[in-house]
Design a protein that fits this description.
231 residues, alpha/beta, Rossmann fold, Arc Repressor Mutant, subunit A, 2 domains, 6-stranded parallel β-sheet, 11 helices, globular
Length: 231
């Protein structure tokens, strides 16, 4: 039986390397490539992959939110997180979202096959430095009482918040989510009210501070004309 794998990353060179690793394994097949979080959610819905390798920081919805949405619809899918850094907040959020592994990009190629094999056995694979972060969190003298900073807002409000923080205009967000400008404005206002934010600048700072977007994820400044991914 063929293992159907989907790759999600906004860097083509990373995606090409991961694809080579997957396709050299007997019985494994790459069935889809996505470069944004929104594209990943739609593609997973359409292709029903067995395993998804998910970049954490991407434009148009990050890997954390994309993972939440995909697993809400298809809990049987195994998702493995991929990141450039073993950032404590990203690791914690992705594990809480339900990923079955967390790889660092500098060693992803050599570990990917092992991580996928572990995931399909319902085991969790962590890169060594990521495992260190998890153990550190778990063994901290004072239990961390971090609360999901945006648990009070809806899934759609989270999507809008992230896209606003990435630099998209209301019209662009409406086109991405297939909603009217008025609906987007309503979601944005409700999310900001619930989070106690008054301006777009405050919203952006909040999103960066909480790890919802990265400093380099502003879509308008990082995307070449006509491109669907960052370089």
């Amino acid at each position: 039986m063929t293992l159907r794998v989907m790759l999600v990353d906004d860097h083509r060179i990373v995606m090409d390397g991961l694809r080579m690793v997957v396709e050299r394994e007997s019985g494994w097949e790459v069935i889809g490539l996505a470069t944004t979080g929104i594209e990943a959610v739609k593609m997973a819905r359409r292709l029903s992959p067995d395993v998804i390798v998910m970049d954490v920081v991407m434009p148009d919805l990050n890997g954390i939110e994309a993972t939440r949405q995909i697993l809400a619809e298809r809990p049987e899918t195994k998702i493995i997180a991929l990141s450039m850094h073993a950032d404590r907040r990203y690791v914690r959020e992705m594990l809480q979202a339900g990923v079955r592994g967390y790889l660092l990009k500098d060693c992803a190629a050599e570990e990917l096959a092992q991580a996928i094999a572990s995931a399909i056995r319902d085991q969790v694979w962590l890169s060594p430095s990521v495992a260190g972060v998890v153990v550190e969190d778990y063994t901290a003298p004072t239990p961390r009482a971090d609360k999901d900073p945006y648990s009070a807002i809806s899934q759609r409000e989270r999507e809008v918040l992230i896209l606003v923080a990435e630099g998209h205009s209301t019209r662009e967000i409406g086109e991405l989510l297939h909603l009217s400008v008025k609906t987007i404005e309503t979601h944005r206002r409700q999310a900001m009210e619930k989070l106690g934010l008054r301006t777009i600048a405050e919203l952006t700072k909040f999103a960066i501070r909480e790890g919802l977007v990265s400093l380099g994820s502003n879509s308008q400044s990082n995307r070449a004309p006509g491109a669907s991914k960052r370089g």
